[in-house]
Amino acid sequence: VSWIVKHAIPAESVGVMFGGPGTFKSYIALDLALHVARGLPWLGRRTRQGPVIYIAAEGGTGIAARAKAWHLARRLDPAGSPLYVVPVALDVVADASLVAQQAARIGITPALVVVDTLSQTFTGEENNAPEVAAYLRALGTAFREVWRCAVLVIHHTGHAATERPRGSSAIKANTDFMLGVFRDEQARIATMECARQKDWETFPDVTFGLTSITLGRDEDGDEITQLVASNLRDGAESIDVVQHEASRGRAGVEGG
User: Fold this and answer.
1) pTM to 2 decimals?
2) In terms of pLDDT, which residue wins out, 251 or 132?
3) Residue 2 contacts residue 9 (beta carbons within 8 Å)
4) Of 4, 5, 13, nearest to 139 (Cα)?
């Protein structure tokens, strides 16, 4: 098995990150995306650096602010992160090839593609196994096979069964890994669980904290803030970032 994130996110794979509303799953997915884009260790694990395409079908215009806050929190220059955002909802089965064509036109070969979310990029019925399987195959054909990359689909849980992704069991049958995100309702803390690895062992649960970062002020003088997810590992991630950037001759960029 080759890896985008060692022993966590396989290369040449299609996986799902699922969670209920407000569990911060999109923030965690963006944290993964930016670590891969910069080649920084994620969860203390080595990453394969490469461009990332983020299909932001839900609230696409907010990704730029989230990415800016992520860089400010780590005192990094956004120019060092090859993150490419598709800020619209699209039909994956019909339009995935258009995304691949545009990527080829600007000369990028992504290591990771994030699709946020399944419901906004899928025109079929989530409980229909053949339609769900066709959707996941389209991701594999248009992205994974062309770029030999990992594809991560963000999806919701059901109202009753919060321990698994909503819809057909074809999701599990047609994916290589599954990550579940569960929130502590009393704090800005989320736990990510590796629910499945097709060709490797699952890894232990990981806890993320959400921090509010000030981006500036609006026309009324009120603060503009955005949340940033980070792995709670006793500050080890901060050390990883500093050492990684220093080894490449890049100093951190101070942010407000």
Assistant:
1) 0.89
2) 132
3) no
4) 13
